[in-house]
Backbone:
């Protein structure tokens, strides 16, 4: 119903009580809320509806480019905002305008968001109704449906997690108290997404303080809820979880007394530690899905009337009037006051509009700065107070390492040992460091507590033993297994970051990242930009990648498609080729404030040489970090051919360079070490110095890393120094086939690289 019609109607309404309750009197039928509180709730509902009306006006005038309404959801919003504590985190969606306003966002906030002004809290980065307010415990929102539920469940798990957050954390001591409730607010359509189902599972499995509030207006754009769930009820798929503490509640979000009572009941249930709550909140839709939708095209007129006459603003106003809490004239006065204030803020915002610049947008994609990373590392190191020498002697005595020496004093090691040692050093820094994923722990199930039995077994510690003994050394709260659920691993990791930790989630193979694609691409890596820099996401995702597994790889075990991930703004990508770089880059990845995809070549884990070329190296000193975006140049004096690569193919390139050297061809080798950021300066300098450039990657050509690297040369001045076209050796445009013959046919080999060098040298 149009809000002006509501105002006209309520002015005619009459009270049914003889005496008006005192302003400060708790009213039992309103769950103990006072008339002052109830009038404040109504005021926020009207404010949200007036802001929404202004957004429509601005859309017609061309100042607002997108509109999405919250009409019909305001009562549930203010009931939650009034009943929750101010530090209970709210992980909502784009229908929660009234919640934001009742918790403390301002009209200025909403007007700047409406027009995408650079002065807004998120600096105009998102469409309207997608805010994030750190001071109000309102986490940053995004449009992809359902993904935020996993983050919310992960945050509730992180809040319950027994480890304390350090004073060195980006949220010293933790962002939220241990008894805080995390609320995920979501539309009924979004609950069909797999991420929501997993979120409810994790909340029930860990019995966290978590509420999933499903605002069910019956329609996901033009799809009826009856075509989504049995009985049109999105809670039905989860009824079995009630055995494990999940409370399912039906809430009338159009009736203030029922809504207040049920919200208070649900909050009390979960805060007491009984388990999570799933609420099916019946709401109306007082307008179509968005400005581009018209529900009159597909909704039964009878149903449209039901939505209109059950408008929560109308019903709440009438109920409060009937009970003598407010008069129709007072409501009209509230509206007039809001009308004036919103108009003033709207005119002010429009008249002083500050546009976004390219520089502003680019500044919000990455936070990475090497000096900042080193400062973070130093801060944690100084606070740790760990005697590393004594600890490694202890670890040796327990059988975790073959020597009591510090890692940097051992001498050359394989990349697997370098990463394992570095993980131990990270774990000694702070309890803010936790690691989880599939098979990462030494033991699982009841064996976690069977210490005597453990002593007689080797333990797992990852399918490639890279995380071996971490659980034994630091406990199951620090290193633990997860279900086979990549989206859940990353969503839960994001939740831990929001609480203040710097987790190290592991995805077993890069091939398995696909189920987590939305959580990574749409949620994790957009955090900094979509929040306007208000939140950072210091998260290092360790994963294996690539082929050359002596034929044991192939489909879903040999992907090297880094170009796919390079195309995602906000994600840094490190690809070490040796023990020294792996250790130094991993410390930098952990200490920086951006999400990092840390790619570890399985082919390099345990190899001591590549066809006779030694590849073991020492590891750097504990306080030596390696900067991102700085390639390492080998044989800089050579200028016949410049060969640019990274990871496993770098070691192959070393062997190929030895082969062609016997034929008088001197190759300069460039190990990029990171492909995001890419060391464009070194790539260009290589073209200038050598004139002939070969790029080698395990990635395929279409959309791959090699094409990006070569374009750094050919798109500008580097082109004028070339004596021949840039030559590429990449994987073929197919998935890697099984067996050694499959590897050889599908991927770059030493022979292919050597032949390409000779062809480039001899034919131009």
Residues:
């Amino acid at each position: 119903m149009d809000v002006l019609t509501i105002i006209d109607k309520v002015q005619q309404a009459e009270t049914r009580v003889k005496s008006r309750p005192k302003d400060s009197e708790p009213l039992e039928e309103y769950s103990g809320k006072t008339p002052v509180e109830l009038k404040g709730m109504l005021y926020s509902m009207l404010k949200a509806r007036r802001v929404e009306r202004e957004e429509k006006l601005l859309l017609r005038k061309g100042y607002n480019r997108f509109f999405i309404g919250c009409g019909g959801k305001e009562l549930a919003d203010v009931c939650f905002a009034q009943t929750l504590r101010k530090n209970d985190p709210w992980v909502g969606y784009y229908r929660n305008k009234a919640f934001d306003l009742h918790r403390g966002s301002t009209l200025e906030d909403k007007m700047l968001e409406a027009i995408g002004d650079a002065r807004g809290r998120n600096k105009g980065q998102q469409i309207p109704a997608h805010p994030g307010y750190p001071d109000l415990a309102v986490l940053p929102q995004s449009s992809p449906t359902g993904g935020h539920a996993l983050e919310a469940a992960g945050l509730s798990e992180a809040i319950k997690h027994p480890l304390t957050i350090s004073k060195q954390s980006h949220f010293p001591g933790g962002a939220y108290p241990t008894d805080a409730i995390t609320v995920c607010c979501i539309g009924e359509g979004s609950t069909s997404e797999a991420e929501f189902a997993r979120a409810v599972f994790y909340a029930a499995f860990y019995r966290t303080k978590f509420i999933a509030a499903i605002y069910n207006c019956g329609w996901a754009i033009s799809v009826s809820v009856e075509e989504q769930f049995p009985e049109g009820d999105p809670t039905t798929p989860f009824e079995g979880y009630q055995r494990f503490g999940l409370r399912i509640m039906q809430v009338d979000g159009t009736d203030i007394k029922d809504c207040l009572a049920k919200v208070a009941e649900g909050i009390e249930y979960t805060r007491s530690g009984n388990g999570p709550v799933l609420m099916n909140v019946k709401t109306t839709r007082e307008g179509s899905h968005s400005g581009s939708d018209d529900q009159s095209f597909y909704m039964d007129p009878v149903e449209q009337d039901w939505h209109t006459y059950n408008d929560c603003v109308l019903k709440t106003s009438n109920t409060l009037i009937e009970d003598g809490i407010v008069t129709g004239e007072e409501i009209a006065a509230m509206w007039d006051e809001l009308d004036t204030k919103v108009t003033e803020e709207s005119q002010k915002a429009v008249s002083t509009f500050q546009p976004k610049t390219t520089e502003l947008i680019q500044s919000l994609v990455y936070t990475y700065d090497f000096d900042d990373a080193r400062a973070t590392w130093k801060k944690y190191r100084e606070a740790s107070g760990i005697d590393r020498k004594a600890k490694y002697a202890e670890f040796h005595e327990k059988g975790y390492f073959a020597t009591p020496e510090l890692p940097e004093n051992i001498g050359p090691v394989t990349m697997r040992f370098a990463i394992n040692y570095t993980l131990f050093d990270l774990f000694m820094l702070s309890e803010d460091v936790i690691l989880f994923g599939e098979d990462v722990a030494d033991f699982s199930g009841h064996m976690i507590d069977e210490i005597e039995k453990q002593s007689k077994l080797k333990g797992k510690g990852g399918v490639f033993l890279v995380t071996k003994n971490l659980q034994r050394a630091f406990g199951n709260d620090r290193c633990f297994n997860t279900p086979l659920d990549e989206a859940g691993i990353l969503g839960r990791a994001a939740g831990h970051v929001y609480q203040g930790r710097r987790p190290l989630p592991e995805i077993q193979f890069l091939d398995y990242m696909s189920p987590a694609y939305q959580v990574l691409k749409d949620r994790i890596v957009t955090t900094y930009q979509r929040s306007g820099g208000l939140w950072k996401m210091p998260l290092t995702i360790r994963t294996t990648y690539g082929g050359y597994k002596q034929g044991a790889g192939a489909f879903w075990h040999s992907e090297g498609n880094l170009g796919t991930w390079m195309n995602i703004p906000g994600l840094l990508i490190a690809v070490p080729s040796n023990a020294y770089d792996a250790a130094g880059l991993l410390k930098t990845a952990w200490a920086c404030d951006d999400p990092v995809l840390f790619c570890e070549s399985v082919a390099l884990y345990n190899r001591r040489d590549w066809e006779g070329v030694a590849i073991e190296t020492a590891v750097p000193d504990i306080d030596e970090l390696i900067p991102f975006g700085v390639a390492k140049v080998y044989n800089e004096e050579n200028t016949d051919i410049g060969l640019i690569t990274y990871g496993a193919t770098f070691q192959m390139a070393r062997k190929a360079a030895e082969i062609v050297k016997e034929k008088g061809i001197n190759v300069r080798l460039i190990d990029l070490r990171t492909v995001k950021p890419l060391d464009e300066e070194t790539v260009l300098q290589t073209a200038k110095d050598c004139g002939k450039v070969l790029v080698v990657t395990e990635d395929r050509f279409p959309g791959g890393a090699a094409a990006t690297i070569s374009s750094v040369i050919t798109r500008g001045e580097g082109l004028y120094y070339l004596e021949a076209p840039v030559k590429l050796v990449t994987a073929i445009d197919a998935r890697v086939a099984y067996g050694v013959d499959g590897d050889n046919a599908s991927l770059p080999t030493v022979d292919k690289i050597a032949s390409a060098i000779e062809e480039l040298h001899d034919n131009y």
In short: Residues 632-762 form a domain with the Rossmann fold fold (CATH 3.40.50.920).
